[in-house]
Every structure is written in structure tokens, then in C-alpha cells.
Amino acid sequence: MGASNFKVIVVGGGPIGLTAAAIDFPILEHRSHVIADAGSNLVLMLIGLRAISQLDLLDPLNAVSSPLSRIDRLDHDGRDVGDVQFFTQMEKNFGVCPRVISRHDLTRVLYNTLPSHAQQKVLTNKKLSDITPTVDGATVTRADGSSYEGAIVFGADGAHSTVREAMRRLSLGLGSADVNEERPFMTT
Ligand SMILES: Cc1cc2nc3c(=O)[nH]c(=O)nc-3n(C[C@H](O)[C@H](O)[C@H](O)COP(=O)(O)OP(=O)(O)OC[C@H]3O[C@@H](n4cnc5c(N)ncnc54)[C@H](O)[C@@H]3O)c2cc1C
User: Fold this and answer.
1) Which member of 3, 10, 53, 137 has the greatest number of CB atoms within 10 A?
2) Nearest to 17, CA basis, from 97, 151, 126
3) Which of the listed residues 101, 116, 135 is the one where a domain comes to its end?
4) 29 lines ligand 1 (CB under 6 A)
5) 188/181 Cα distance (integer angstroms)
6) Which residue has the higher pLDDT, 19 or 122?
7) Segment 123-152 mean pLDDT
8) Is residue 43 in contact with ligand 1, taking CB distance under 6 Å?
9) Rounded mean pLDDT of 122-143?
10) Reduced to 3 states, what is the DSSP secondary structure of residue 50?
11) What distance in Å separates the CA atoms of residue 60 and residue 125, rounded to the nearest whole number?
12) What pLDDT digit, counting tens, does each position of 3-27 carry?
């Protein structure tokens, strides 16, 4: 595979997959649309806001998000134990507060501001099921047997990642003992 054929396959059309849309890619997203009311609101912290600013998306995201300037705290009996204002310190020191945004609005802005040629590469209803290494890259396979070839697979398919599972299987198959736990993000 020559340099001009170097293709990255992004699995997952969530916030991370859509941010990766500056590279040449197909994004394989298993939902029917990437703009979805799935998951909770997100707080965009300063590092994320900086990346968003570098992508020139601060204005459209500011229009649909709210600054998080303070947290009011209650104890287990519902008594007011005061507020926390470290976000105002952030604003004083760095010029910006964290911002609260719904996942729907975040993915809408990320998707709608992509150029149309990039939007066409976000392929929905494409659920990855396996990855096979090739001599110069990898083939990713969908449940229906269709496949895509690329130089790199960029796993952006969330906490319960099929890409991570496949990498774990491949490492174990090569005899490596140094692998992730099967479900590294489970908690109680
Ligand atoms: C309750 C809660 C509160 C949170 N609060 C915050 C917060 O305040 N701030 C913050 O930054 N983060 C927060 N997070 C974490 C945040 O949701 C994640 O960091 C963020 O969604 C990660 O984005 P992502 O694109 O990596 O993955 P995801 O948002 O999980 O997106 C993964 C995408 O991949 C797709 N996909 C999955 N499997 C496949 C497959 N096999 N084939 C194809 N596509 C697939 C999914 O449909 C989805 O679109 C919170 C999470 C939870 C659960």
C-alpha cells in the first residue's frame, strides 16, 4: 500500500470519531444517524475547549452550551453545604469556564460543520464485528460479511469497544500476556 493509499478507518461516529474527521477516512457508525439523543450531557473542560477552538468550532458550540461557573452542594440530608467556585478561578486564570452541552448538540455541531465531502464518508448502519491484520494494514469486517481495508484502524467506538476487544483477541492469539482486562471500564 503506497502513501497515497494510506487510509484510516474510524469505527464509531460519536464525539471522538467525528473529531477525527479531519483525516482521510470512512467512519463506520452502527447507529442509523450520528446525531442522536444517546447518553448524558457532557461538560467540556479546558483541554477539550482548546481543541474545539483549534477546529474553529467555539462559536457554534458556545451558541448551544452553557458555562459551568459554580456547583451547589447538598449533603446526604439535603442540607446546603455551600458552593464550589473553582470554575470561576479557571475563568480568571484561563479566560474560559467549562461548558455544559448535550451529546445531541455536540454531535450535531461536529457533524454539520464537516465539509460535505467529509459528511459523505460518515457511513451509518455499519457495525464493525472483527478486525484482521494484513501485511500492510488491516481489514475490518461487518456482521453481514462486507469489509473495508485500511492502513490503520482508529477505534472510537466508546467504552464497550469492539475494536479494543478485537485487539485483545489478536494480542492473546500472538501469545502476549500484556493485554487489557476484558471489560476495563466496568465499575460497581
Ligand atoms: C453518565 C455519564 C456522564 C458523562 N459526563 C461526561 C462529562 O461531563 N464530560 C465528558 O467529557 N465526558 C463525560 N462522559 C463521558 C463521555 O460520554 C465520553 O467520554 C464520550 O462519549 C466519548 O466519546 P466517544 O466518541 O469516544 O465514544 P461514544 O460517545 O461512546 O461513541 C461511540 C460511537 O461508536 C458507535 N459504535 C459502538 N460500537 C460500534 C461498532 N461495533 N461498530 C460501529 N460503531 C460502533 C456508537 O454507536 C457511538 O456512536 C460521561 C459519560 C457518562 C456515561
Assistant:
1) 10
2) 126
3) 101
4) yes
5) 16
6) 122
7) 89
8) yes
9) 91
10) helix
11) 27
12) 445 567 778 888 888 877 756 677 8
Structural domain for 130, as ranges:
7-38+102-179
Q: Is 98 in the pocket of ligand 1 (CB under 6 A)?
A: no
CA–CA separation, 99 vs 76, rounded Å? 27
State the chain's mean pLDDT as an integer. Answer: 86
Question: Strands, E, within 57-112: which ranges?
Answer: 66-67, 71-74, 80-84, 99-101
Residue 1 pLDDT > 50: no
**Residue 126 CA: which ligand 1 atom is closest?**
43
Q: Which residue has the cell 473495508?
A: 148
Judging by DSSP bridges, how do beta strands 27-28 and 8-11 pair with one another?
Answer: parallel
Give 29 Cα–ligand 1 centroid separation in angstroms: 12
Residue 185 lies in a domain: no
Q: Number of structural domains, the chain?
A: 2
Domain boundary among 54, 85, 101: 101
Share of the chain above pLDDT 70, in %: 93
Residues 106, 174, single domain; the answer is yes
The confidence band for 164, taking pLDDT boundaries of 50, 70 and 90, is very high
Query: What backbone torsions phi and psi does residue 163 show, to the nearest 5 degrees?
Result: -60, -45
The answer to the question of residue 1 being in a domain is no
